[in-house]
Amino acid sequence: VSRPPDQPFKDKPVAIMGASASLFGTVRAQMHLRQVFVYLDAKLLQRPEIIVPDASHKFDAEGHLTDAATRDLLRTWLVAFEQWIRRLTP
């Protein structure tokens, strides 16, 4: 992905989110992905960040999000990402 002549991520709007069973969520992974996307010339949404720690207690057995605060944050994040895409897409 990083070496083809036509860069697939160049100037594309991207965003990062993650969920983890740990209390730190996906903080380290997201920090690393931010560096990768800079190298790929992607247009990364900076805020809001969405890191879902302790995810095993925020989803039910079928994988449905049950935590209201996380659901609200996700809704805010999705609106921001949609606006980011519209801003960057001609």
Automatic annotation (TrEMBL):
Leader sequence segment: none
The NADPH-dependent FMN reductase-like domain, residue ranges: 3-55
InterPro entries: Flavoprotein-like_sf, FMN_Rdtase-like_dom, NAD(P)H-dep_reductase
An example Gene Ontology CC term for this record: cytosol
UniProt GO MF annotations: FMN binding; oxidoreductase activity
Gene3D superfamilies in UniProt: 3.40.50.360
One Pfam entry name: FMN_red
Protein known as: NADPH-dependent FMN reductase
Species of provenance: mine drainage metagenome
Taxonomy of the source species: unclassified sequences, metagenomes, ecological metagenomes
